[in-house]
Records
---
Amino acid sequence: MENQEEGFRPRESGLGRRVRARRVLIGSAAGCAVLGGVLWALPWERPAERAGPSPGARAMAAVGAGVPADPAGLAELIEEREEHVRARPRDAAAWAVLGTAYVERGRRLGDPELYPRAERALRRSLSVRPQRNVMALTGLAALANARRDFPAARRWAERARTLEPRRWTTYPLLIDACTGLGEHAAAKRMLDRLTGLRSGPAVLARAAWVYRDRGWREDAAASLADAAAGAREPAERAAYVERAGQLAWERGDPKVALRHFREALRLDADLRSAQAGQGRALAALGRTTQALNAYRAALARQPLPSHALELGELYESLGMDEAAREQYGLLRERVRAAAAAGADEELVLGRYEADHGDPGAAVRRLRAEFARQPGTEVADALGWALHRAGRSEEGLRYAVRATDAERGGGVRSAVFMYHRGMIERELERYGAARRHLAEALRVNPYFSPLHAPLARAAAQALGDPPDVRPPELAG
């Protein structure tokens, strides 16, 4: 993948061939199967099979295949379904399609205010057809995943799977839910079942992120390359290319990441996650003004709390404290809006509080979040918050959980390694601290404009391991 960023053709590495030998033609990128899970049973055609399809028809074709739809198509699809249910309020399938279209549009726009509308439509579908309404059940699972309510997502998806175990588009929803709950072995089992039911670019991209979470980077890159090469519509290909950019960023290659993010935006100008990714990569390359502009553009159209936190920390690293406070204020505002719409942004709020607000409040929030859904990201954030609150010994237990592959922390994250190393340094476990800080900088030396310099300074202060001969050789 590292040398194929322009054509997205698979690299014939040993692991890449192993991916093919397992025939892992599976899954969609996060959120890509949201609408596909609901619309699987609806008729659709390939774009080449009809002349001049409308954006709404193209959206229907895309989501029927379990792949992303462009925003214009989603808007048209929603308008058409709204008109339909006004005329035929007893059409359970139409209500389910409308509800899940709201979910996808809310996710694309970063607008949680669409989620209550989605829930009303999906529950209306269930009230009209309370028995064997798999479309509404998968729509509710998609909604719960979008709200970061992973226990509810798993319950809804399991109900759908019980009714139709061979409905392939239910499995990406279960994979997301299991991952959010920190159940990586279960996510892999769901992936294995998916591979037996479906093949194609959307499924390859889903597999890539499961591989990424298990630390199989080259497998993930090969699967994403194949997914991008096989995608038929611009919005679909853009989603997979953006994911390739994320992988490149995580392995510490901002130049390749930037090329991926630019290509994703060329394919889909409304993909704001790619625009924020540009900001991340540009900042790493020292192109600060362009980085700030990219982040501002992303937040203007998709004001996600996580992007506001990133931009605030970039401002803080530049000594622009007032601008940083403005972004942190936006973060709090968006978290409140999300909570009002039933969405859970406690993870990003806890991260903010740990480093820029009240670490004690961060501990309380993240402890409750971990009790409800103990994912790897929450474990890392809780461990760091405990450390920042002066409870490093307890914090280390969660940091180990987030970074130990045997306990589910297989993802190679520079941030997680940095947190663990700094906690071990505080506890005077200098050998372990030295190893983990070095690993953080080896994985991605640019992982944060605010924290990467602290990691380098801490690693330099620890110095090289002491030159002590084994006792049996001493004297």
Note: The radius of gyration is 23 Å.
---
Amino acid sequence: MAETAKREEVEEELMGLDPERVEAILEAVEEGNSERLSDLMAPLHAADIADLLEQISSADRRDLLKLWSGEIDGEILSEIDESIREEVVEALPREVLTEAVRELETDDVVDILEDLEQPQQDIILQALDDADRVAVEQAMSYPEHSAGRLMQREVVVAPMHWTVGETIDFLRREEWLPDQFYHVILVDPRMKPQAYVTLGRLLSSKRTVALKDITEDSFRTIAATDPEEDVAYIFNQYHLISCPVVDADDRLVGVITIDDAMNVLDEEHEEDILRLAGVSEEPSPSDGPFATARTRLPWLIINLFTASISAFVISRFESTIATLVTLAALMPIVASTGGIAGTQSLAVSVRALATRDLTSTNARSVILREIGAGLLNGIGLAAILALGAILVLHEPMLGGVLAAAMITNQLVAALGGVLVPLGLHRIGLDPALASGTFVTTLTDVLGYLAFLGFATWFLL
């Protein structure tokens, strides 16, 4: 029984931010019961606490921070979403903020500073030690969304001529080492990285072994000015754990670890998904309706204008529709099916471009594949539509028109889904940014045009 109760207690803690706990926390905040609030917050991971702050209202957030602000540490601060980070920073007492920031690595401090206004940036910079402040300011001097902003300046280095024993003695002696690191980077006298050694190889080798004899084949460097999406690609492509960052003279200036690279990869994926849906940024759970509408309205207005093109095409066939009223009911079948097919092709293409699986080298084969898939899908859907028109409407000719229009629009959808993002990528634009609007317009306009055009030619 005791073992079962203990297991249930552990499982409850692992659940993290469950609704019952959130409700209890808000009740404690409303009652001003700081002791009860501390008991409820204590088992939560920093990420769960950050989620809690994001999910509750702004008023509840201010009250919670006022009652519990002394417990906010650097780990929690780094987990808080950028949409509310400035509000949280402003709500924290100066001494709490100072202590929290001092716990962070330089890359986490830079990540926080990027989302704050200048007054809040100055407060945090003043809280840092001189050496850390200089390191953070140097990192902030690199372009936004570059490797220089992503790296941490705390780097463990060793000369090429050291042995395992000398390195281990150095690591045990030094107190400034970062909380987490995976490699010892080997540098020449000019601080240019030459190789690295994993901690596993270091600890499993004899003290007399030279570091240069146990280096890893995966060694490579990243320029501080490289875009962060290139960094994420390199980590994912070559299965890196950490990677040295160099300046224009190839001298070591920092290191990027896998957690930061994967955060960038996740952000890139989320951004692509949102843009494909016509949303410029992900809303925070605490955002109001006006903030949410502001991010979506521009694309809805664009879609309004593109939809008018479809309306114009339909208006050109008023006489055809007036003669065969059934066409009005059947038009959406062709257009909507084409839109879905285009979205399928588009999602695959945008993802392939993001992972660099779709390049100029294999673009032709990918286009031919999409054409073949579109043709096969079109034939299958055309057969179903034609059979339905014959059995239900008793109109073989109408079935033939539907079949021809469906095949045409499936080919258009397949081609548009790959050519539109390729074209945008070729001219330097984000393929996820406007591809959805263009592909939907193509399938709608050409779907209506094909269906009504074939109907005019063959049925009138």
Note: The domain at 2-141 is CATH 1.25.60.10 (MgtE N-terminal fold).
